[in-house]
Design goal:
The structure holds two protein chains of two kinds.
Chain A lengths: L5 E8 L7 E8 L4 E5 L6 H9 L6 E6 L2 E2 L5 H6 L2 E4 L11 H10 L8 H11 L16 H13 L5 E5 L7 H16 L3 E5 L3 H7 L2 E6 L2 E7 H5 L4 H6 L3 H7 L1
Parallel strand pairs in A: 3-8, 3-9, 6-7, 7-8
Antiparallel strand pairs in A: 1-2, 1-4, 4-5, 9-10
Chain B lengths: L1 H28 L6 H19 L3 H24 L7 H23 L14 E3 L2 E3 L1 H23 L1 H11 L1 H6 L4 H26 L8 H14 L4 H18 L8 H15 L13
Helix pairs in contact in B: 1-5, 1-6, 1-8, 1-9, 1-10, 2-3, 2-4, 2-8, 2-9, 3-8, 5-6, 5-8, 6-8, 9-10, 9-11, 10-11
Classes of the chains: A alpha/beta, B mainly alpha.
Amino acid sequence: MTEPLLKVEKLCAGYGSGDIVKNAGFTVSENGISTIVGPNGAGKSTLIKALVGLLIPRSGSIILAGKDVGKMNAPAKARAGLGYVPQEHNVFRNLSIGENMMLAYEFIAPDRAGFSAARDRVFDIFPDLVGRESDLAGNLSGGQRQMLAFGCALMPHPSLLLLDEPSAGLSPKYVEGMFAAVKAVNDAGVCILMIEQNVREAMAISETAIVLAAGEIRAQMPAREFMNHPDIHALYMGAASTRQQEGA
Amino acid sequence: MLQILLNGIVSGLLVALPAVALSLTYGVLNFPNFAIGSMITFGAYIALFFNVDIGVSLFVAAGLAAVGLAAVALLIDRLVYRPLRGADHVTLLVASIGVYFVLENVVRFLFGSDIRGYDVTVARPHRWMGLRVNNEQILIFVVAFLAMVIVWFILMRTPFGRAMRAVSDNPDLADVRGISRNKVIALVWVIAAALCSTAGVLVGMDGIIDPLMGWNYVLPLFAAVILGGIGNPLGAVLGALIIGIVEEMATLVLPTTYRQAVSFVIIVLVLLLRPHGLLGKPRISR
């Protein structure tokens, strides 16, 4: 078995007193899509903020491709290969689309020459963005903005892309397109870890399900097994956490 | 009338330099930097020190003043604003008022409170189509214009300018784009210091140097920034020109001692009638 791309161990994070994420531990293997699911208030957003470096974890380790990035701040993690698409406010609204794409690249990727190749790759996945470089990003519709946010995160060739509820706030007709885009990005060779509320749609494209409840990782199992699980409710509420983890 | 317009444009350009600085620091650091007045004064005095006490030309002294004031601004950021990073803007505003008093009194302590002047020869004003134009006014026009073109170029055409606008737009997203916020903030202070010290030297050339010289500019330059649309450097330039012209025009009907009141009235009117300023597209915020 190969070393996982991302290995999180005993991660604790939170605001003020008390931890919101408690002793979280899970792995993300290369090439697939993993999805973190859990009830509202489970600590999903806190977990992803800690992973990205917008919140510095109190303890524990985050190993990305064999390197401990746990104590790095967000810019350093970005340069270490961690891409991130926030749930909202995920583009620079007062900058043009072209400038957004440029900014997504130039402070992370060291080689300037690769910019146009990276941009072409993004245009291949999101053809809607072609020819609109001078438009203000703030004027895009919700779905298009999400595409731009996605494309920007892909610009510097991250080794792992974190998505915070990519379908949140999108109208139902965009949700399907969004998941297709996630799949397309993954097919282009980028490993993805996402948080998602639309469990059924997310699981359809995911390989792995990670269940987070009350700040703890309750289970990690293949997505198919999760969807066929006899008692998802118990997983969410945590009645049988240890048993399920053993079974994973 | 044309003479008044010309004088107004020149004094507007003098306001424009620190107004752009104020606008940039507001955008990136998210607080109105009240200490901007004493930065103008401090820059003027650093140049005075090199020009009069050391004896280098005013041109070189102005360059040294920009470097010196940048160092002072970075030091102040490290000591005062950095520990307060993330505090709300009222806290930072109050801190900057404190910085204002400290800087002004450092000037008084080092240089005294007397009126001073640069070591420059005064030339007779030129007459041109009935207008009286002196060398200082021409210099102010050229320097201020160049400075603004340079700032515009940095802001719109360089990676660091993009980074500055990104941090101003969405600091968290800038973080995950690999942009180091502290580097951007440092750059903003350097640019702001260069603009303020240049303004200080120009004000000193055109008039006098005393510890309150920057204070006189605080009101008009806040008025300019508010008029132009807070956090919009281009708006700040426009606002400054309007303030300059209106203040000069006001001297036709008001005693010159009330000049400053004009800025006040403009601030009040703008806040009442068009709170996001002239160029204030209300920023897109959906």
